[in-house]
Amino acid sequence: MAYLYLALAIGAEVTATFFLTLSDGFTRRLPSCVTVVGYLTAFYALSQALRTIPTGVAYAIWSGVGTVAITIVSWIWLGQKLNLAAVGGMVMIIAGVMVMNLCSGTSGHG
């Protein structure tokens, strides 16, 4: 269940960040409201995930997957450019999260 909360936190944070761009500095009401609700949802869900998942692991997954996801969303829907360096950086982010989770021994509470 904790990883479902973490997935919800990631999805809500990516949604909130996307709508933050659309809010035009909080001057547009609907995107601004989606942003606020999205961030509140993200932090609530992350807090629930942290009841079981160690903080370092949860944050690595949340920030790493969130960074890659918002980059892809921005590329698809906002036309932001991705070059080879950006793609390489995203691959390294995901690799780092995987190494941390699978090989470093940080996935336990002890």
UniProtKB/TrEMBL annotation:
InterPro entries hit by this protein: EmrE-like, Small_drug/metabolite_transptr, Small_multidrug_res
The entry's keywords: Cell membrane, Membrane, Transmembrane, Transmembrane helix, Transport
Membrane topology, as annotated: Multi-pass membrane protein
GO MF annotation terms: amino-acid betaine transmembrane transporter activity; antiporter activity; choline transmembrane transporter activity
Major subcellular site: membrane
Superkingdom of the organism of origin: Bacteria
Cellular component terms per the entry's GO annotation: plasma membrane
Family matches, as Pfam families: Multi_Drug_Res
One GO term of the biological process aspect: xenobiotic detoxification by transmembrane export across the plasma membrane
Places the protein is found: Cell membrane
TM regions (residue ranges): 26-46, 58-78, 84-103
PANTHER family: MULTIDRUG TRANSPORTER EMRE (PTHR30561:SF1), SMR FAMILY PROTON-DEPENDENT DRUG EFFLUX TRANSPORTER SUGE (PTHR30561)
Family note: Belongs to the drug/metabolite transporter (DMT) superfamily. Small multidrug resistance (SMR) (TC 2.A.7.1) family.
Listed name of the protein: Multidrug transporter EmrE
Naturally occurring in which organism (per UniProt): Novacetimonas maltaceti
Gene: emrE
